[in-house]
Amino acid sequence: MRDLKYLQYFEDLLQSSYNDLIREAKDEGLVCAAYLCENTPEPLFNLSGCFGIRLFAPNTGSTDIATYYMTNFLCETSRAILERAIEGGFSFADCLIAPDGCTMINRCAENIEMLRSMGEYDDRFFCEHMELPLKADDNGVKLLVLQCKNHILQPLHDTFGIDISDATIRKAVEEHNRICRVIRALGEFRKEDYPRITGYEFAIFTLATYVCPHHLIIDKLEETLKEVQDREADPKKPRARLLVVGAEVDDPGYIKLIEEVGAFVCADRFCFGSYPGRNEISLSNDEDALTQICRHYVFQCQCPRQMNMEKVYGRKEYVSKLAEEYRADGIIYDQVKFCDPWAYERVMGATMLREDFGYPVLSIDRPYNSHSSSGQLRTRVQAFIESVEIKKLQKSANILNQKKGGRGKWK
User: Fold this and answer.
1) pLDDT digits (tens, 9 = 90+) for 92-129
2) Inter-residue contact 50 to 35 (CB < 8 Å)
3) DSSP codes joined into one string, 250-273
4) Are the C-beta atoms of 268 and 249 separated by less than 8 Å?
5) 37 Cβ contact partners less than 8 Å away, ≥ 6 residues apart
6) Torsion on CA atoms 246, 252, 255, 256, rounded to nearest 10
7) DSSP H helical segments within 19-94, as ranges?
8) Do 293 and 169 touch, CB atoms closer than 8 A?
9) 8 A C-beta contact, residue 160 and residue 49
């Protein structure tokens, strides 16, 4: 396939946590609200006069300093983000919103605040720690509404004068939905027998929507969508179609590694991916926008921090439906090293999807930066693809045998 016009542009942006578009938005006088978890209502950071950036640490090397403060028992994601903060990589942020998505992200945010590694020279900088519900019910919605008012909206208004009216929130949701529609439309091409977009390209564009100001990338994304619509696909089918499930997958190089050995990442269910983070938010005029946004985030949540049994089993059914919709031949279930919530989820998910739903599953405990152990990852993925191919051949042979009579003749 011919190269997409803006692929290299977005690849370059994702090489730094402080990219050129953040600089451009800051030069426009906009307030940058940094946040740390997919369960935080993203549109609330993109109100008039401000923009939200989800923190990540591309090209992470050593995390020795962060490990000194947090120990090596905490996940590599939290340590990588703290290391980047200490290095000054997040100096652009005017505030940090830190929900209790997990204990490790809490420790990361607390160390950032205590070390003053963000907002060191800005007296207006603030760090807010907010609570997230553990169950998807009406009480959970009420809790999230209260937390968003106290730890996002009111501090933004009091400190920077940001308009937090219902009308402004609704406009932010419209812009959020515009981003979601583009990403969803790009993702639809992954359902094709001969896809017109690779999983790696899709991961690049999707990640950019989390770490770049939306108003500076939407036009390029919409132009890319038109380009893909007219793109001619490669005439060769992938060896296997794989669904990748996990937590903080903010490294497109990991997706690229999987595809370099002949697979195609046809769908995603991870925190920086399109499911569920790029679902549109439906608003009615019968209720305030904030409550509807919070209800959307509480009930769409696919994070293992929600531990009621309906959610525990529902997450596996959700993955199974995605695999069916995108016609996945197998599933890669991963976690970042030392991630506690996803360690349990990975074991249960891999077992249930294999035994109860019948999917081939590869369970991976991977480093935050895939390049640090690319050889081992490549070998495991290669072996998994070969096993998926064998299962497909066995399934075809069984179907063929069922169509034949006892003497080898067709029924």
Assistant:
1) 999 999 998 888 999 999 999 999 999 877 889 999 99
2) no
3) --HHHHHHHHHTTEEEEEEESTTS
4) yes
5) 98, 99, 101, 105, 132, 271
6) -170
7) 20-27, 64-70, 76-86
8) yes
9) yes
Dihedral of CA 39/42/45/50: which sign?
positive
CB-CB contact of 377 with 370 (8 Å): yes
Burial class (CB in 10 A: 0-12, 13-18, 19+), 75: buried
Among residues 90, 94, 102, the alpha carbon closest in space to that of 37 is found at 102
The amino acid at residue 73 is F
Amino acid at 212: C
Q: Which long-range contacts does 395-402 make (Cβ < 8 Å, 24+ apart)?
A: none
DSSP three-state, residue 96 = strand
Q: Integer distance in angstroms from the first to the last C-alpha of the chain?
A: 43
CB-based contact 19:211 (threshold 8 Å): yes
CA distance 92 to 113: 15
- Which of helix, strand or coil describes residue 213? coil
Spatial distance between the Cα atoms of 201 and 8, rounded to a whole number of angstroms: 10
Alpha helical stretches, state H, 189-217:
199-211
- Backbone torsions φ then ψ of 356, nearest 5 degrees: -95, -30
Helix/strand/coil for 365: strand
Contact predicate 79/18, CB 8 Å: no
Minimal CA–CA distance to 301: which of 37, 5, 27? Answer: 37
Structure tokens at 258: 């999987």
Q: Of how many residues is the chain composed?
A: 411
| One-letter amino acid for residue 285 of the chain | N
What's the burial of 120, exposed, middle or buried (CB within 10 Å: 0-12/13-18/19+)?
A: exposed
42, 80, 88 from 111: Cα distances, Å = 23, 12, 14
pTM for this predicted structure: 0.93
Q: Do residues 143 and 136 touch, judged by C-beta distance below 8 A? A: no
DSSP label at 28? T
Residues whose CB falls within 8 Å of the CB of residue 401, separated by 6 or more in sequence, listed in order: none
Torsion of CA 213, 215, 219, 224, to 10 degrees: 30
pLDDT digits (tens, 9 = 90+) for 26-79: 999 999 999 999 999 999 999 999 999 999 999 998 999 999 999 888 999 999
CA dihedral (181, 259, 302, 19) positive or negative:
negative
Q: How many angstroms separate the CA atoms of 53 and 40, rounded?
A: 12
